[in-house]
C-alpha cells in the first residue's frame, strides 16, 4: 500500500487546533478589552495610573507614568480601542483559518508569532525568570508547529493532483 498524500484541507493535525485555540483566546481577550475600554472611557485608566504613581511614590510631573497620564484622553482611548479590536479580529480570523487548516493562516501565524521572538529574548535578558522563559517557549512552539505545517505542505504532494 502506498502512503496517502498529505491533504491539509481534509483535517488539521492536533497542533494546529491547539494553536487555533490559543489564537482564538487572544483574539477574544483583545475584543473584550477593546469593548471595555470603549464602555468605561479614559477615567478608570487615569485613576489606575494615578494610583500607581501614588503607590510607588513616583514624581507626578516627570517619568513614563505621568507622561502616559497626560496622553490618556477620550480620542486616545478610541484609537487604542480600535487598534485592540483590529488585533483581536485578526487573531480570530487566524484562529478560524488554523482550525480549518488553511495555508494562509499557518503563514500568518508563523510570521506574527515570529515577530515576537526578539522581544521575548529581550524580556529574558531584562527580566530573567520562568514567566519570560515560558512566553518564549510558547512562541517557539507555535512557530514550530506552524512552520512544520508549511513545510509538510511543500514537501508532500497535494491531495487530488
Task: Give a quick rundown of the structure.
The protein is mostly helical. Helices cover 78% and strands 0% of the residues. The chain is built from six helices and no strands.
Fold and architecture overview:
By secondary structure, this protein is an all-alpha fold. The protein has two domains: 12-99; 102-161. 16% of the residues are buried. The model has no long low-confidence stretch (mean pLDDT 86). Helix content is 78%, strand content 0%.
Task: Present the secondary structure layout.
Layout: H1 14-40, H2 42-55, H3 64-71, H4 74-99, H5 103-126, H6 130-155
What are the defining features of this structure?
mainly alpha, 6 helices, 78% helix, 161 residues
This entry's quaternary arrangement is single chain
The amount of helix comes to: over 70%
Alpha-carbon distance between the termini? 18 Å
Specify the structural class: mainly alpha
What is the overall number of helices? 6
- Alpha carbon gyration radius: 21 Å
- Count structural domains: 2
**Could you describe the largest sheet, including whether it forms a barrel?**
none
Strand element count: 0
Task: Flag low-confidence runs.
Answer: none
Chain-averaged pLDDT? 86
Order of helices and strands: HHHHHH
| Overall geometric form | elongated
Approximately what portion of the residues adopt beta-strand conformation?
under 5%
Amino acid at each position: 500500500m502506498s502512503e496517502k498524500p498529505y491533504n491539509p484541507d481534509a483535517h488539521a493535525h492536533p497542533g494546529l487546533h491547539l494553536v487555533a485555540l490559543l489564537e482564538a483566546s487572544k483574539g477574544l481577550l483583545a475584543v473584550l478589552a477593546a469593548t471595555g475600554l470603549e464602555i468605561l472611557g479614559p477615567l478608570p485608566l487615569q485613576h489606575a495610573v494615578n494610583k500607581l504613581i501614588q503607590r510607588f511614590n513616583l514624581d507626578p510631573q516627570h517619568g513614563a507614568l505621568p507622561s502616559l497620564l497626560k496622553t490618556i484622553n477620550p480620542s486616545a482611548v478610541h484609537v487604542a480601542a480600535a487598534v485592540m479590536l483590529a488585533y483581536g479580529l485578526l487573531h480570530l480570523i487566524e484562529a478560524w483559518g488554523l482550525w480549518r487548516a488553511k495555508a494562509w493562516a499557518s503563514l500568518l501565524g508563523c510570521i506574527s508569532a515570529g515577530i515576537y521572538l526578539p522581544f521575548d529574548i529581550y524580556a529574558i535578558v531584562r527580566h530573567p525568570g520562568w514567566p519570560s522563559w515560558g512566553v518564549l517557549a510558547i512562541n517557539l512552539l507555535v512557530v514550530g508547529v506552524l512552520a512544520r505545517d508549511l513545510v509538510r505542505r511543500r514537501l508532500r504532494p497535494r491531495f487530488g493532483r
